[in-house]
Amino acid sequence: MSLEELIRRHVELSSKTEKDLQGMKVLAEESQRVGDIAHDSENIIDDIDIRFEQLTSLNNTDITFLFFATMLQTLRWVLLPELELPRMEELTPSVDKSERLASSERKHIGGIYDGKKSGAEYELEELAKYKDGHQDLAQRSQDEFYSKKNKYRSWIEILTQPVPYDAMNALDKNLIPNIAGVNKKNLNGSYNNIYGKNHHVATLGHDPILGWLFGTANIMTNTVSFVDFQSYDVIQGHKVKSLGQFMQTRELQFSDQVIDYSSPRSLASIIRECILSTEEDYKRIAAAVVRESIHLASDKYCIEGLPIPILSTINPEKAQELIEQGWNSLEFKNLLTDDLKQIGASAGLALLINFIIEVFYLFCFETTDDRNIRKVKIKKILSISEVMASSSNILFVALTKNMAKLDIGGVAVTMVTLIHSHDFMRKMKQEYIRNEFESLVMEDSSEEIV
Question: What is the model's pTM?
Answer without folding.
Answer: 0.75
